[in-house]
């Protein structure tokens, strides 16, 4: 910017600081400076799609399919789904035209046999599968984005992200979907309502990892 506008670094930084004070731009370690915007907020109270959260706050929800393939399942996916052959779909989710999530979904091949690339671009798996769902277990952790996902999200490689793994089960308790969601940390917030509970030495849902 200093070269582009013929101004000193001090002037550029002061200008950015003034814009930040007015709420027009923001800065975060690993991301640099970016146009300030309301983060996409997602509730963890119930099983719901990303699209429903985005549309619930009045944003335009879109999805762009990057990969659609029937293939052998990676070991970790096969272990969860109990199936060696899967449909894998990788997509980018957008809110008002801005990417805010990279999502990879694995589905047993027999469940996804009749699905097309166009199907999964238009509607979520929850609406496409002829299965009564029971619920899901979701694990959320901090991570650094790799080069491929950074390109899709429009952020620098190595930027902080929230990485979520979700395993969705049917009424019998059998896993039918496994998905991984990568969210840029500066654009996403997860909201949890905590009702009054009995005192506990171990917070529910909190796990310390090495």
CATH architecture of the largest domain: 3-Layer(aba) Sandwich
What is the CATH H-level superfamily of the largest domain? Chorismate lyase-like
Task: Give the C-level CATH assignment of the largest domain.
Answer: Alpha Beta
Q: Classify the helix fraction into a percent range.
A: 10-25%
Q: Record the strand order, biggest sheet.
A: 4-5-6-9-8-7
- Report the C-alpha radius of gyration, rounded: 20 Å
**SSE run:** HHEEEHEHEEHHHEHEEE
Task: List low-pLDDT spans.
Answer: none
Q: Estimate the mean pLDDT confidence.
A: 81
Write down the overall geometry: elongated
- End-to-end CA span: 41 Å
Please tell me the total number of domains: 2
- What is the fold-level CATH name, i.e. the topology of the largest domain? Chorismate lyase
| Alpha-beta content class | alpha+beta
Strand content: 35-45%
Sheet bearing the most strands, described? Answer: 6 strands, antiparallel
The total of helices stands at 8
What's the number of extended β-strand segments? Answer: 10
């Amino acid at each position: 910017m200093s070269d582009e506008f013929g101004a000193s670094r001090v002037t550029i930084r002061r200008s950015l600081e003034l814009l930040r004070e007015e709420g027009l731009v923001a800065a975060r370690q690993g991301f640099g400076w970016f146009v300030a915007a309301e983060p996409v907020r997602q509730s963890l109270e119930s099983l719901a799609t990303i699209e429903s959260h985005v549309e619930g706050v009045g944003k335009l929800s879109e999805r762009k399919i990057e990969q659609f393939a029937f293939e052998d399942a990676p070991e970790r996916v096969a272990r969860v789904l109990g199936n060696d052959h899967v449909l894998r779909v990788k997509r980018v989710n957008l809110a008002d035209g801005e990417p805010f999530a990279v999502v990879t979904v694995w589905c047993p091949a027999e469940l996804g046999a009749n699905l097309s690339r166009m199907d999964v671009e238009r509607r979520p798996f929850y609406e496409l599968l002829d299965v009564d769902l029971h619920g899901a277990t979701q694990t959320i952790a901090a991570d650094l984005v790799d080069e491929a996902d950074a390109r899709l999200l429009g952020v620098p490689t190595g930027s902080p992200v929230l990485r979520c793994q979700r395993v969705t089960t049917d009424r019998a308790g059998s896993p039918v979907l496994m998905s991984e969601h990568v969210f840029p940390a500066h654009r996403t917030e997860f909201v949890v309502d905590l009702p009054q509970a009995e005192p506990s030495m171990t917070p529910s849902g909190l796990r310390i990892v090495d």
